[in-house]
Amino acid sequence: MSVKPLRGLLLLPLALLGGCHLVLLNPAGDVARQQSDIMISTTAIMALIIVPVLIAIGVIAWRYRASNRQARYDATWAHSPQLELLVWAAPLLIIIAIGAISWIGTHMVDPYRPLQRIAPDQPVPAGVKPLEVEVVSLRWKWLFLYPQYGIATVNQLAAPVDRPVKFKLTSDAMMDSFFVPAMAGQIYTMPGMQTILHGVINKPGEYRGFSANYSGSGFTDMRFKFLGMSTADFDKWVARVRAAGGDLDRKTYDQLRVPSRAAPVQYYAHFDTGLYNRILNLCVDPGQMCMSQMMAADAHDGDMHGDAAGNAMSMPHAVLKPAPAQAAAKH
Questions:
Q1: How far apart are CA 285 and CA 289, in angstroms?
Q2: H or E segment and range at residue 166
């Protein structure tokens, strides 16, 4: 092969990556930025041992090649304290450094930990309440409930910039993984369990969100748009959802539960305030006993009866205790 085709072949990967937006290395949210810094820092520290080793392999292979008769060869050589110190001390120091950065960093960006800042050297302003979003993964679409505003959406998420967001997440039927790379790391959603994720977006824009966990044939279409907006634009968006949306009642939710691919964006101006808790406790349908009630019955030796559970669920705004939050694997 001539030099020019070989050079073009080597540059092909760079050409293929030229149109990529490396959002993981340049995110628009402070939490994702901290995660990116951890990833870049640990990779750079690992390179301190990987790069010299790769260079040493080439140098040794070249120096002690069969045709080099000038290389010194000692048939009785067995041990070198200096070499042993270098071989063991350098990796040990690197492991300690990576371990310290990873331990401290991952605890600082724990998804269950409320945000202490919205940007570097910019703490959360006093009196600012996080935007609460209840997330339900369906097959194969995302349902977002805004309890503070009484609205709901399908496959579209919005939040004001520089305002903390607290996500409560669960799933209707299958295990999925909620992921907005520009905002925060991924976290799993599971039926009958609740996970928590805190995040913030610092730049207005339209960002990509999707499921990062395979969940069947419609997995590739389980995507949504995340809109980062100014506070004024977010208020307009809420008003638009209220004006264009209908009611998210149990019948409508049953329709959403039906598996579908590439579901369009849908707005709901109202929803039952107890819907998320019923989804979480696996008791959306009338007459079903909720998991929280089952656990309470077990704790009281079965004193609670199914009729009482059904009556409680027939109340339009019954508030149920959510199932214990379960920690999920995070990235």
A1: 9
A2: strand 165-171
- Report how far residue 228's alpha carbon sits from residue 184's, in angstroms, rounded to the nearest whole number: 13
- Counting beta carbons within 10 angstroms of the beta carbon of residue 273, is it exposed (0 to 12), middle (13 to 18) or buried (19 or more)? middle
Looking at the DSSP bridge assignments, the partners of residue 141 are 138
Burial of 245 per CB tally in 10 Å (0-12, 13-18, 19+): middle
Rounded CA-CA distance 138/222 in Å is 9
CA 17/CA 61 separation, integer angstroms: 33
Which residue type, as a one-letter code, is found at position 154?
V
Instruction: Please choose, from the candidates 146, 127, 120, the residue with its C-alpha nearest in 3D space to the C-alpha of residue 29.
Output: 120
Between CA 226 and CA 77 the distance in angstroms is 64
| Rounded CA separation 279/287 (Å) | 14
| DSSP letter for each residue of 99-110 | HHHHHHHHHHT-
This model's pTM is above 0.85:
no
**Could you report the per-residue pLDDT of 144-156, keeping only the tens digit for each?**
999 999 999 999 9
176-179 and 187-189: which strand pairing?
antiparallel
